[in-house]
Amino acid sequence: MNKRTLEENIFKILMMISISIVVGSLIIIVALVIINGGPALTLGLLTQTSSGEFYLGSGGGGILNAILGSLLLALPATGLACVIGIAIALYLQKDFTHSWVAGFIRFSLDILWGIPSIIYGVFCFLIMIYLGMSASVLVGIIALTLLEIPIITRYMDESIKLVPIGLKEGAYSLGSTKFETAVKVVPRQALPGILAGILLGLGRGIGDAASILFTAGFTNRIPSSLLDSTAALPTMIFQLSTSSLPIVRQKASATALVLLLIVFTISILSRALSKRYMKYVIK
Amino acid sequence: MSTECRIQIETKNLNVSFHDNHVLRNIDIKIPAKKLTAIIGPSGCGKTTLLKSFNRLLEIQDDVKISGQILVDGKNILAPRLDVPDIRKKMGLLSQKPYPLPMSIHDNVAYGLRIHSNKNKGEIESTVEHCLQEVGLWNEVKGRLHDPASRLSVGQQQRLCLARAIAVEPEVVLCDEPTSALDPLAAQQIEKLLLKLKKDYTVVLVTHTLRQAKRVADHVIFLYFGMVIEQGPADEFFNNPKNPETKAYLSGEIS
Amino acid sequence: MNRRKLRDFLGTKLMLVVTVAISLLFFSIFFLLLFKSLFIFEQHSLAEILFSSSWNPGFNQFGLYPIIVGTVLVTGIALIIAVPISILSAVYIAEYAPKKIRKVVRPFIDVLAGVPSVVYGLCALLFLVPLIKDVIAPWFGIETTGYCILTASITLAIMVFPIIISLCVESFHAIPLSLREASLSVGATKWETVKKVIFRASAPSIISAVFLGFGRAFGETIAVNMVVGGITRTPSTIFSPGQTLASLIVSAYSDMMSSPLYESALMMVALILFIVVLLFNIFGIFILRRAKKRWNF
Q: What is the DSSP letter of C115?
């Protein structure tokens, strides 16, 4: 075997090792969560709220407050982010604005995408203190909305960019105004990409802990108003993991299992919906 | 036609499919050594596929099935467990659009040399100079050998690719419509080069302009919808075609 | 003015307002953090903060040096682990993997990217901490609780894999087939083609991917906080506990309300975090955009 083939074979082996590490990591994560959390994943866990004892031992309720909290935070946040995202994405179409402004807007969205979620949390926290509010569902929603806006907007923007210009011209020739075309014709065509973005944003919103840690607070109760603080799945996991008791950690894993299931379902849903709506897309 | 012509490349029952699309059917051809063989035919009939099967470049794509035999100097290059880079070294490739490698002019030509031979720096430099002179590029680039190759004009890039190909001393030069992306002047330069090259190398030229084939070919293969319709020495082919489809193509009825 | 035109006008203006507000968001964040940090700058100089080695807010000591060291170590080691593995994986996926394997592996990478950081932290806690405490550290003859720099680095490395891999794969795919053919046709092996042609052609994208991965690693808060140990002393080995800038913000959260100076110090930490991540992301994005224009993907 000559030197060149030898080098190639060595690197091929390294490549196989690398890809195994990557794939293996995911497998280990899923396995850990299932094995460690499985025993604790009872109906009781899902249907009761937590209490003081929940963090100290095997009894004390469940994570219902966290589950509901997560939904209460992430769904409205995603909705708000969608509305804002559509507004920005439609604005970015060439017909509305000149090149360099659009470039700047896209650039700042790229930057916002990369900002660590803790910064959004800190930002909203500071404003919250300044306004004299306390950690609550409302502030948490705002933090998550800011977090999701770059993701959702980028997907919407990219999808709308792909809409062929002939389609818009067709609408104009039938008498639509720019705004009407923007709102009625374009989104349909860009639907698969938009849906993917929305679901991706939702997944991020449900899974993120850093942004809501300071802003949504934590409580064992189910929040009864927008101004109540609330637990959420990520913050619940965070709390439970710090315990030194294996039983409590099992609960953390069970919660993580619930969270992963939700996130994976969203991901699968996103792919399925994209495929279904691809039929509307004109190539 | 001379009967002492050695056959450099021969295919036996060559079949190629792409994604279950049967592109080449039962190809049996003979390509003579040290002559220019033109593969002609309408677009999309498999000419490029046939060309790229000779240096086993087809297999880098997904879903390709190749069966049959391709004999180069009597040895089947489709046999299993062969050293493919070695096979490819014997064949140089000139593509439709020039693709200079992302490096300097000098390094482009030296690329193959550095991989295959143990020459030292000085020897490499003189080989590079020799190859660039062979393709008529030396005088135009000798002052800027270390500039990126992407700065050359399209015609110069194509000649550079030719220099890169012959630097590793192949026996065959495969050309896939090498002038189609060039302006008429550059195209003429390439044609002249091909005529010069055929003295030392076997040249296989895929072209879809009949006139080009008439200008340069010694031997012609006519491919239509993936099948060989007719092949033979250029004189006979152009002046005395035997097959009705050949006649139709030559007279411009089908194109 | 008729109704439709009015609606059109208002609609457009509304979009404009929203767009402007969001575009300027990062300026707002920057200035707010800066404003909040001013207080601590009145009491301590920047040099003092960055270079003095004790972080003891209760005693009015705000030396970030140990935490900066911790951050550099954790992020640096994470990248040293992640970059080679990611690039090799990306090469495998783009150049070597048979179509069937490629179809299976791509979703794996996407799924890995979607796992929440809290879950990474939890798994690191359950798996890596005991592993390092009971197996790896003793092998080196060192004692550790397992909550240390190395654990945080490995966790971060895994989190960064999907970012670098998917950017690299995208950039490898954008390179035209004919360029590979040009290299292969002079008799180069596949690996030589990867080494000398593909890497060269995608160098800007790879660099950009590394920058973006770095930004992600630097800013990761939750997972690191769960396993790094939270000790604000300069770590002596990678098996020592430590603290990072991002993780500090979370650790100190409940304490910071106790004094405005403390709060200001933490806002400054957030500011530093924000600026560093911003710079790396800007670099990364710029290089990526230039590469996209060049190769049209």
A: S
**Every domain of chain A and the residues it spans:** 3-39, 66-280
Number of domains within chain B: 1
What is the length of chain A? 283
Q: For residue C272, is pLDDT > 70?
A: yes
Which residue ranges of chain B lie beneath pLDDT 50? 1-3
Give Dmax over CA atoms of chain C in angstroms: 83
* Whole-prediction pTM: 0.89
**pLDDT at position C61, please?**
80
Average pLDDT over residues C288-296: 70
CATH of domain C3-295: 1.10.3720.10
Bridge partners of residue B94, in order along the sequence? B175
Q: What is the 3-state secondary structure (H, E, C) of B168-225?
A: CCCCEEEEECCCCCCCHHHHHHHHHHHHHHCCCCEEEEECCCHHHHHHHCCEEEEEEC
Quote the CA–CA distance of A182 and A171 in Å, as a whole number. Answer: 10
DSSP 8-state symbol, B5: P
CATH number where B68 lies = 3.40.50.300
Contact state of C220 with A8 under an 8 Å Cβ cutoff: no
Q: How far is the C-alpha of B101 from the C-alpha of C188, rounded, in Å?
A: 13
Chains that touch A (3 or more CB pairs under 8 A): B, C
In 10 A of CB A281, how many CB atoms? 16
Touching partners of C (3+ C-beta pairs < 8 Å): A, B
User: Half-sphere exposure (CA, 13 Å, Cβ side) for A68?
Assistant: 21
Structural domain boundaries, residue B75: 7-250
Helix, strand, coil % (nearest 5) of chain C? 80, 0, 20
Q: What are the residue ranges spanned by the domains of chain C?
A: 3-295
Q: What is the architecture of the domain spanning A66-280?
A: Orthogonal Bundle (1.10)
Q: Do C182 and B103 touch (CB under 8 A)?
A: no
Q: Residue B211 falls within a domain, yes or no?
A: yes
Tens of pLDDT, residue by residue over C108-166, are: 888 898 899 999 999 999 999 999 999 998 888 888 898 999 999 999 999 999 999 99
CA distance A45 to C3: 55
C26 contacts in A (CB within 8 Å)? 108, 111-112, 115
Predicted confidence band at A179 (pLDDT cuts at 50, 70, 90)?
low
- Shortest alpha-carbon distance between residue A153 and chain B (Å): 35
* Cβ neighbour number for residue B145 with a 10 Å cutoff: 18
In a domain, B2, yes or no: no
Kindly list the distances between the CA atom of residue A96 and the CA atoms of A177, C13, C58, C70, in Å, as whole numbers in the listed order: 12, 11, 55, 48
